[in-house]
Design brief:
The chain is mostly beta strands and about 240 residues long. It is built from one helix and 19 strands. The chain has a 17-stranded mixed β-sheet that branches. β16 and β17 form a beta hairpin. It is globular, with a radius of gyration of 19 Å. About 30% of the residues are buried.
């Protein structure tokens, strides 16, 4: 007697449930090349549905975009030549007081759409995005952070180029942009700039030449799996 596909899939989900339960995030969409350096020093190339976890240093290559999705529903989209590290992550559906998310942006830029960690906890430090010049805290929002590096030694920056530092823009909600001991609130449609961890950030007119996090139209179109709900915050993919 032939066993139907759905019972087989449910059995597979049951076997894989512990693995999904401990997976803190996955590569949801990918266009180009994405690599990870694990805490043990090993380096691997990632694909859609690859897992990511605390301690991972994740890098997009030239012309590459990637979207990471975390167990609380949060999403981080990385633009080309971006490098981030997942510093900490804790999400327990029944224990919001334990929520914790911290990511470090080493270079490049990203767009972050926060999940439950950025919305339900009374702890303002539950979410932190650390950059080279400032720390970003939020209460449920959609924002973009772009890090502009200084020119190489001995080189003069091109005319009308952006000053080195970190730029943020907000599409929804608000962020706390913190540097120099000052917390600058940045709301919808606003932009802010931080040039140094020791100097206060400041609101600025949105720069027209600020790099954007805009994946190609085909981004995410090649991955449309059938899914079976395997419980809250967990999905089992059926091939």
């Amino acid at each position: 007697m032939q066993v139907s596909a759905v019972p087989r899939a449910l059995a597979a989900c049951a076997l894989l449930a512990p693995l999904f339960a401990f997976a803190q995030g996955t590569v949801q969409y990918l266009s180009g090349t994405l690599s990870v350096q694990r805490p043990d020093g090993s380096v691997k190339v990632l694909a859609e549905r690859s897992s990511v976890a605390v301690g991972d240093v994740i890098t997009t290559q030239r012309d590459s975009y990637a979207q990471l999705r975390f167990n609380d529903g949060g999403q981080v989209t990385l633009r080309p030549e971006t490098q981030v590290k997942i510093e900490s992550y804790a999400y327990d559906e029944g224990r919001p007081e334990r929520d914790n998310f911290a990511m470090q942006l080493f270079k490049g830029g990203l767009r972050s759409l926060t999940g439950l960690i950025g919305k339900r906890s009374n702890n303002r430090n539950a979410y932190r995005m650390v950059t080279s010049t400032a720390t970003i805290g939020i209460r449920g929002t959609d924002y973009t952070a772009i890090q502009i590096p200084p020119p190489p030694p001995g080189q003069t920056p091109p005319p009308n180029s952006l000053a080195p530092g970190v730029y943020v823009t907000v599409a929804d909600g608000a962020i706390a942009f913190i540097s120099g001991g000052v917390e600058q609130l940045v709301g919808v449609g606003q932009a802010a700039f931080s040039s140094n961890f020791n100097l206060p950030p400041k609101l600025i007119p949105p720069p027209p030449n600020l790099p954007q996090v805009t994946p190609p139209p085909s981004f995410g179109q090649g991955f449309k799996p059938t899914s079976i709900n395997a419980g809250s915050s967990m999905e089992c993919i059926v091939q």
